Amino acid sequence: GKGKWKDFNEKDLLLSYNALKVLEARYLLKDPNTLRYIETPQMLFRRVARFLASVERKYGKSEAEVKQLEEKFYEMISSLKFVPNSPTLMNSETRLGILSACFVIPVKDAMTTPEGDGIYDALRATALVHQQGGGTGFDFSELRPKGDVVASTAGVASGPVSFMKVFDASTDVIKQGGKRRGANMGVMHAWHADIEDFIRAKTGQLKDVQLQNFNISVGAYDYFMEAVVKGESVPLINPRKTKIAGRDHEYYITKARGYMNEEWIQEVILSELEEKGGVVSLDESKVITVDEALVIASKEGAVVRYVNAKSLFDEIVKGAWDSGDPGLLFIDTINRRHPVWYLGKINATNPCGEEPLLPWESCNLGSINLEKFVIERNGKVEIDWDGLAEIISYGVRFLDNVIDANRYPLKQIEDATKRTRKVGLGVMGLARMFIKLGIAYDSVDAIYLSYQLAKFIFYHAYKASIEVAKEKGPFPTYDSKLYRDIWESALDFNSLLQIAEVADKPSDYVKKLTSVVDKLDFDLLKGERLKYGLRNSTVVSIAPTGTISIIAGTSSSIEPLFALAFVRNVAVGKFIEIDPLFLEYLRKYELDDPEVIQKIAESGIIGDNVFMPRSLRKLFRTAHEVPPIYHVLHQAAWQQWNDSGTSKTINLRSEEPPETVEKVYLLAWKLGIKGITVYRDKSKQQQVIYFGVKK
Ligand code: UDP
């Protein structure tokens, strides 16, 4: 009917030129024979909504209820308030069945294993995941070091880094669903004998050359960071020679052994495992620390040599300063704050770090566009908290349905994913929300707002997951006693500022703006959980939203604006972009003359332009103008209320010295961040985004 077409047109007008370009190039379905488009953006959003609502039929919902939910899903996606991660947009209702962006695949120290987790099993699994648009993370720490013996061939092992090159080459060959390049995260724990090779794998002469499809991160434990601070030495270990730090294992929770008391595992866990068929509850008091594990490893004769932790750390810092790699993953923080810690130990994350996952787990993401929740009420600009709570609730339900609608490429992935039902609700458009509220990104007010938003979103996502559990039951490995609530270990706002040695206090304006958050009752929430359980073992996750933020026409994730005008290089071509929100503000000041815009476009920033109004210069500070400490504080604020990870790039100016990277990495650890990455401008040849308009 006529009304429907009117709706179509209005919704389409929400999409920016860049959004249409991206959708056209990679998302809209085409007829495989004629290559003609067979859908419009609204048809795509409808396809996704219909597919994810249809899952509810399995749970006994009536046709009317399913239809109603489809409308809700369609409404929140087409209004660009919530957008699921790319694989869900691309693959819903199509032949390719993966809807998730994040995977962690185990790599055992064998070519292949009967369980399918040897090196070449992992390579195969990776190919299947990349083919359909997923990103993969690996911990390579179980592989024996370079030069070690290989019994079967009486040969010499080539070491983890050389195997990583095989994964890299395979990634080059398989374009994800023909639509995007594969992305990998390679992790090596700081105790591994080949750690120095690993640290240098992407820097110096090897940058822009080796492992180009990998982000790499060193797994840094607390013992390691403490040794760095004290300048002590730490052991490097050959994992083949110890039962503790790695090695092939006969039983399911084996990866947890790095943390478990060996005798207790033999006596209690193994018998329980047999009885219960794979899932056991662990007693936390029996968990040993990694320091204790290292002592045992040393008794087993697995220590290859000792190195000074500070020298190793300096190498890491130098590499990151030079090329952006390696980052750090704080393995203890990750496991301490893992709600289902009793299922095993997490050793790796997906490519961008927002999902620390157990072996074989996958996670699907979706992000809320915060910019859409800034409203004007009685002439005042405010946050629409009720509207936000509603979208959070539907967002969690949507993401939980993705787990059921997913077609998994491997049984191991399906089993691990359905055991914990992790979902990751995130955000985008934070920087634009700040601007609309008149708050500068690099201010204590902005950090406070981040903290409060994160708390609000976590509360409502968790609540929504309880609601779904009431209807559909909790995730299968939910254990009401052992499940660990992350708020018990969240740093409060003042502690964040204290640790970072920032003296400012939040203003009354931002306190009033967020006062609803102070009324949330977490004790009540916990009572509900104890009664009904949780549908998902994790509920939130801050993803980079690299592409979906373009579709939504907003700033990405929790990042500041990158530039006020810039050239964006993506797979489909070059885009020149002038920030539309900035243009709006220029208009208010009658500064929207082509000459002015042209001038600004040359550098992409206005911070150094003394002829620009002071308020604009403050509000429109871009990524490289924001002091590093504010980048880190935003990441820390979001991490406190996040049961998964927070993806963030600490963007540094080209002139920043290595000491800045050192400070950022140390501060990140102290602030309870799970993983940290820096990127110094111009430090690599291939950069996704450039400043200013290049002629
Ligand atoms: N990812 C990937 N290839 C890409 C971009 C992303 O495999 O080219 C995966 C990766 O696991 C990443 C996750 O998707 O961590 C989320 O990235 P992002 O939020 O940027 O994805 P979007 O949904 O915006 O495409």
Annotation keywords:
Anaerobic Ribonucleotide-triphosphate Reductase Large Chain, 9-stranded mixed β-sheet, single chain, 22 strands, alpha/beta, 3-stranded antiparallel β-sheet, 695 residues, 27 helices, binds uridine-5'-diphosphate, 2 domains
Radius of gyration: 25 Å
Distinct ligand kinds: uridine-5'-diphosphate
The chain-level structural class is alpha/beta
- Morphology: globular
CATH domain fold name of the largest domain: Anaerobic Ribonucleotide-triphosphate Reductase Large Chain
Mean pLDDT: 90
Count of distinct structural domains: 2
| Amount of beta strand | 5-15%
| Contiguous runs where pLDDT drops below 50 for at least 5 residues | 245-260, 277-281
Helix count from the secondary structure assignment: 27
* Percent in helix: 40-55%
Q: What gap, in angstroms, lies between the N and C termini? A: 48 Å
What can you tell me about this protein's structure?
With 695 residues, the protein is of the alpha/beta class. It has 27 helices and 22 strands. The strands form 7 sheets. Strands 1, 2, 3, 6, 7, 10, 13, 16 and 20 form a 9-stranded mixed sheet that branches. The structure holds uridine-5'-diphosphate (UDP). Uridine-5'-diphosphate (UDP) binds next to loops.
